[in-house]
Amino acid sequence: MSDTQKASEAQTIREKVRAGYAEVARTGGLSNPRPESSCCSSKSCCGSGAASADELAQKVGYDEAELATLPEGANMGLSCGNPTALASLKPGEVVLDLGSGGGFDCFLAGPRVGPTGRIIGVDMTPEMLAKARHNVAGYRERTGLENVEFRLGEIEHLPVSDNSVDVVISNCVINLSPDKPQVWREIARVLKPGGRVAVSDLALLRPLPEAVRSMVEALVGCISGAVLVSDTERFARDAGLVDIRLEQKPDYVASMTSFEDPLYQKITAALPPGTRPADYLTSLNVTARKRE
Fold this sequence. Notes:
7-stranded mixed sheet; 7 strands; globular
């Protein structure tokens, strides 16, 4: 495949993902489910069609009390882990959230870094960006803080200066990128020396059958774009990051299956007999840092 063809294919993937998440922003994800209209025939892209957004968030490690502090509509059920907890945020830090959506993790991270810290959310979907910016007023009212901002941009080309961020977080987003090595290079570029990254994402334990990879629903649902756990580690190392740690969290995929999520039901039907999504897919926590 030529470079031109690769670029065209990557752009097609981005447009599919952008369109899918624009629909999630319009329908509200799990916080305002509309089963007749969503990006992947489920009620969210990475979430469950049966559980509420808060129930799903608690399943992947969020505390009920902190969820209660969020602006209404910020949690759309798109999480597959809790990167804000992994990051161990400190007062005064600058935090960048890749694929910030409606602002869910940004609004949870804001009080942790306090008035001297700053949270920057980046998302490529204008509808998500509008939703997040709308939610800022509710965040300000609940916390008294003005330390969160949102920027339009692709995670392969972050609208952030070199060596300017203490912590990069991301929640179930990098798997959607058609150029994951470039995302990890961008993470390394924007981190300050000694800065760290905490990512929750979906990864493969073994390659998916072609019948699943070709499903548009699975692409937008954070599945067919996932890569092997070993590839994720390699991308981070090749970008120059060190102290890379990967923790597999199979409970997420098991929860999606038990919730009878429509997307996961479709995937199960397309898998070889006797196998299940959890045989191929896992939620993955990734932490690393940039050399000082």
